[in-house]
Automatic annotation (TrEMBL), chain A:
Primary location group: membrane
Organism whose genome encodes this protein: Teichococcus wenyumeiae
GO biological process per UniProt: peptide transport; transmembrane transport
Statement: the UniProt record of this protein carries the keyword Oxidoreductase: no
One Gene Ontology CC term in the entry: plasma membrane
UniProt domain ABC transporter: residue ranges: 6-256
PROSITE patterns in UniProt: ABC_TRANSPORTER_1, ABC_TRANSPORTER_2
Protein name per the record: ABC transporter ATP-binding protein
Record PANTHER family: DIPEPTIDE TRANSPORT ATP-BINDING PROTEIN DPPD (PTHR43297:SF2), OLIGOPEPTIDE TRANSPORT ATP-BINDING PROTEIN APPD (PTHR43297)
UniProtKB/TrEMBL annotation, chain B:
Species per Swiss-Prot/TrEMBL record: Teichococcus wenyumeiae
Top-rank taxon: Bacteria
Name recorded for this polypeptide: ABC transporter permease
Principal subcellular localization: membrane
Record-level GO cellular component terms: plasma membrane
Amino acid sequence: MSAPLLEVRDLVTHFFTRAGVVKAVDGISFTLNPGEVMGLVGESGSGKSITGFSLLGLVDAPGRIVAGSVKLNGQELVGLPQAELRRIRGKTMSMVFQDPAMTLNPVLTVRRQMRLALAAHERMSDAAATARCVDVLSRVGIPDAARRLDSYPHEFSGGMRQRVALAIALLHRPAVIVADEPTTALDVSIQAQILAEMKDLVRDSGTALIWISHDLATVSSLAGKMAVMYAGRMVETGPTGTVLSAPRHHYTRGLLDSLPSQAEPGQDLRQIPGSTPSLLGLPPGCPFASRCPAGTATCAQVSPEITWEGGRGFRCHHPLVEALA
Amino acid sequence: MLGFISSRIIQALAVMLAMSMLVFLGVFAIGNPIDVMLAPDATQDIRAQAIAFYGFDRPIWEQYLRFLGRLLQGDLGSSFVYNIPVMQLILSRLPATLELTLIAVISATLIGVPLGMYAGYRPDAPLSRFIMAFSVLGFSVPTFWIGLVLILTFAVTLGWLPAGGRGETATVFGLEWSFLTADGWKFLLLPALNLALFKLSMMIRLARSGTREIMLSDTVKFARAAGISEWGVLRHHVLRLILVPIVTVFGLEFGSTLAFAVVTETIFSWPGLGKLIIESIGSLDRPVMVAYLVLVALLFITINLLVDLAYAALDPRIRRGRNA
């Protein structure tokens, strides 16, 4: 088997704040092959966005990757100087963010912003640059792209704006795109359109995609495999279908049970009791122990290691038994 | 656009009318100019003649209306002291102040914005701390004191630069300018530095707070994720985003310095507008005071209008009517 496109091993990112060390990402491992889509699921504050930033070396101070490895095409990215990381960002690996109204620069035209992103990696003539921009904008579904090139971000609708951001991320045909909740800020109907286009893009270009989301529905429709994060740790991973149909970790189960589609009309939604622990000074054991229906004294004391079974892994002392059909 | 400008012009006229009224009343309340203009031993006859000549025996509203009537014909009256038209007097002083102000405000902006951006980009660097300490100093130490220290250091102790006055000038468009001669620059340097220090501090703080805020935004994260270099992010993204408040302060500072560089001009005996207004207040030269303050109102209105137009040029969201 050839080496994977992206290989992340035991990635640990800490924030050294005045109040103490925040373990935002605590031992994440996964691999990604060309054309593969991986969903990264978790609540707000579970470390999924920081995982994305860590991959591109974009963790802001006081945060820092303290351990682990990120290999892209066999090249180690952790510890690489910023100048070399910059050459990879946007070219081999790029990122799209949640709210396009916040990410695009409101006072620059789309042409100018795309031109800046192009110039970061390639010298090209104005004509060639325009042709490339129009081509990429059309590919992400922007009608009349040549004319819209001189518009400002506020002149686009929310969905179109996210397409522009996506086009900027796609300019150099990157091998990996990290998409951090790119559809969360959009209407449901627009979400569906963007999802469909992402699927096509991944299929046509062979780009690998890391889809960060708290929305299990988008992940299940898009991602071939997924990882569930809780309090900075990866609590469960595996092929999306099996993880969602037969979760082994109690947190994944809880997430699934709290989906509105699982409840009868008029019935209250099921909730996971308690709330996400503060990442500052986590207790020694499993971070989910206090909220877990199967939590025991062991869980509170000893952090479970990851157990691998076939293509899936989970971190639990008392895993759910796989439902036998 | 046309509606915007015409409504601004009507606003401007109303402001200037109110301003002229306030100034006229205020100046009237200060004292009787006749007491200053005539020698103490002037006879009652001469006194009465002078009062009748300037119209001081009329009720104040009539004096005001006559002033307004002349103003509408472009006549701001003549100075009691110099006996030449006020407009001519002001125009003769304007270039000196204009060049001093422009040099001070522009250099403060060109130096202050990069320094402030650096301090905002690297808030914990030793150089940033030094820049910020300097800006606190520039803010809090009074202008007159800095002016005196500058004179003491560079003129008295070192003897490098002249302590005051204007030096050699060159005539362009019938107006006298110092910045065209080397000698003129010698005289310009200290007062310009004195005026610039406060503005420099303000520009530093403004650029720093804007940069700090924008460096944390998703716009910068996204630009970095696209592989744009730090220099590119600062130059193309951050600078454009912090420009609107900087243009505002630039306009206001330019206006207020042009109108009220009084302290610096007095210390350096710079023959500009600030010195003119101080002198005219001292001698109760009513036409000069009134005309000057009305022109200052006009100046501020014009600058505000230009700043508003600059906003529209800098921030497309402020432009109207092109929404998709």
